[in-house]
Amino acid sequence: MARDKVRCWWAGSDPLYVAYHDREWGVPSRDARHLFEMLTLEGAQAGLSWITILRKRENYVAAFDGFDVERIARYTPARVEKLMANPGIIRNRLKIEGTVRNARAFLNLQGETGDAVGWLWQYVGGRPKKNQWKTQREVPATTGESDAMSRALKKRGFTFVGSTICYSFMQATGMVNDHIQTCFKYRGL
């Protein structure tokens, strides 16, 4: 983690943030488990800072069975209560129940389309969209693509998938490259 590299401003100097920026954010992912994890974590972030979620990420992985969608879809009300008592995650009932609901919706999506990953990637035409932002101020909070993804996910029963969450999800999973042009990651992706 070199400090002399130019990064997107939001990476700051926190080692956890810098590592996330340098190793993961914006790197294209087509792994269903990882995509579900990121959709869950982006939803958990609603109203909070991303660093809060990053600091609790390992706890989320443990609490939600490594983001195994099939296992989460079978969670019972008793399991939700156990999660509500877990200080290592955000103990918001709507967000926890939303994760279970989203796991069920994800499985339904997989069953209906045969390819949940491809279905999600369709919103950027199946390949990463490389933006050309010069400053962080230019980076939008939502786009037409995130609006469409949000509407479609909500129609399919997902929750905590507003357009801003969907766009953050698209950025995090490399569906869009929103590293600014001066960032060392911009050209590498």
Strand order of the largest sheet: 1-2
CATH class membership? Mainly Alpha
- Oligomeric state, counting identical vs distinct chains: single chain
Helix content: 55-70%
CATH architecture: Orthogonal Bundle
- Counting helices, strands and paired strands, the structural category is mainly alpha
Largest sheet entry: 2 strands, parallel
Assign an overall shape.
Answer: globular
- The end-to-end distance, rounded to whole angstroms, is 17 Å
Using the CA coordinates, give the radius of gyration. 16 Å
Q: How would you describe this protein?
A:
With 189 residues, the chain is mainly alpha-helical. It has helices at residues 15-23, 32-45, 50-63, 69-73, 77-84, 93-113, 116-121, 144-155, 163-172, 184-188; strands spanning 129-130, 176-177. The protein has a single domain (9-188), classed as Endonuclease III, domain 1. It has ten helices and two strands; from the N terminus they run αααααααβααβα. The protein has a two-stranded parallel sheet with strand order 1-2.
